[in-house]
Amino acid sequence: MISPARSTVSPARATASPARLALIVGALGVVFGDIGTSPIYTLQTVFNPGDPHPVALTVDNLYGVVSLIVWSIVLIVTVTYVLLAMRMDNHGEGGIMALLTLLRRWAPRGRARTVAFLSGLAVLGAALFLGDSMITPAISVLSAVEGLKVINPGLAEWVVPLTAVILFILFLVQRFGSAAVGRLFGPVMVVWFVVVAVCGISGIMGDPGILLALLPTYAIGFLVGHFQIAFFALAAVVLAVTGAEALYADMGHFGRRPISVAWLFLVFPACALSYLGQGALLLQNRANLSAPFFLLAPAWAQFPLVILATAATVIASQAVISGAFSVAAQASGLGYLPRLRVAHTSSSTHGQIYVPWMNWLLMVSVITLVFAFRSSASLAFAYGMAVTGTITITTILFFYLARQRWSTPGWVLWGGATVLVTVDLLFVAVNLTKFTHGAWLPLAIGLAAFTVMTTWQRGRELITDRRTRAEGSLTEFVRGLRSDPDLVYRVPGTAVFLNPGSETTPLALRANVEHNHVRHDRIIILTVTVDTVPRVDDSARVQVVDLGDPADGIVHVTTRFGYTETPDVPRALRLLEPEPPEGALDVDGASYFLSKIELREGPERGMAHWRKRLFLAAAHITSDASNYFGLPRDRVIVMGSQIEL
Hints:
Elements: H1 11-30, H2 33-36, H3 42-46, H4 59-84, H5 96-106, H6 112-145, H7 148-151, H8 159-172, H9 178-206, H10 216-225, H11 227-237, H12 244-249, H13 251-254, H14 256-284, H15 292-295, H16 299-333, E1 343-344, E2 353-354, H17 356-373, H18 376-405, H19 410-432, H20 440-471, H21 474-483, E3 489-498, H22 507-516, E4 518-531, E5 542-546, E6 554-562, H23 569-573, E7 591-600, H24 609-619, H25 625-628, E8 636-644
Parallel strand pairs: 3-4, 3-7, 4-6, 7-8
Antiparallel strand pairs: 1-2, 5-6
């Protein structure tokens, strides 16, 4: 008889297993849609006769292309992202903005130019990712809905409007959060990958010789022996790895382990089997090039497969949409975008967020692209540029940070960096040849986003400098109140003045004293800081600094929040000691004073006039401070000032 004490599964582990499985299924529904639907269009795009640099469909070329696809996935997705980059996280958060925060924190002193250059690269990579997040939903859903033409060519005219409707509904459900979306989409993606794998196996059984393409010698031989052909083939091969960057950007939503397990044991095998199966199908009959993915299925199963593929490509869009939310929120927290309203949609997973402004911007952009390009083949020329740029920048930043922090021998890091960066740059170079055929689009979107982000950062620096001059010294202001108290009438209650720092006087406080000749018994000058970590523990959230004589009743309080947290000022103030040195503070009855600054373009130097106008335009999307900081609207007083940029 077995004693219960000898049970090999602890209660904690037994409880954790269903939760871990739920995260894996959720990751399948959110993270892998993009890369998991690439088999629909990648191989047929390589041999598309309408390509500016067509690749002939020959046996040698087919083996070489299939081998290139499989090994590109291995090097870029499995090695670069799953095995390497995802180990470089910022308290669980991933993505290129997480690498930027680590760069700021870990960069050695005396390397200002290097850090500035790499920081610029990181911002550019984030901007390119935002460009990719506009193209991916359009091409993914279009490619699946186009499967209707395989069943009935007469349905062609319905492809574009049906795609637009599907995308519109997808963006409408984003407000429910990635957890809810993942629970809905996860089981669908499990079915999808199983079907993809089964279809791939059926194709391989028709010509098992295609399995030789798993040997890296075919990819290397194709590149070396037919470089001109292989080089241009890479422009379409890159479609097989689109979505790799979403694995990293979405890491905060589900964690590294669930994403890694899902990739290694389900997603990668299913995708590889599909590419091999399509290759075998084309070896049997070149006429299958019209739609090799759908033709892997028997005739009776093609319509259900189109429906399943449409569902899967809708889910593919979710991967980059969730990633775009993470990038936008992190960029806002780090000062590269205006303050955006961020809704946290999960009480247990901090990284699951919804950014309304970004959601509607993506929706309008994506649907516009669908009506402008009208086919996945047209969008395919534009697709790879943003992806390859983001991947290359991520690889460079990763190896730089690994050199600073890891004890791995230098020759190992340099060797790995040389191989992976060379592969990435090959993809970048070949996509540049498609510039006039559509590759300009993601570059234009990325450069526009880069310009906005760098302009906002620079504008904030200038505004902060000029605001500091207008506010004056806080120490001198408090000293003036103390030296001549009869000039100001002291009223009961607590007033909280939000201010960027502890050195200057809040404009609202200065105006209240100078014009109204009034001050409250208890005054909290509050500075809200956003740290370069995702979350801050309550024990380190609040810091109180005495500004002089306790009888003044004036204190400076700093509250710290992580860049993935939604600031809640009243809750943070309740963490103060019940009776600080200056006496009890009535936080629940406090009045909150905001200094509203009206920005105007002025003659001062520091930015070009067009950038000033861009900054002022971007300032209009800044979320309301009362909502952003969680202030009670009925106890908020706004006092205005003017500052010229």
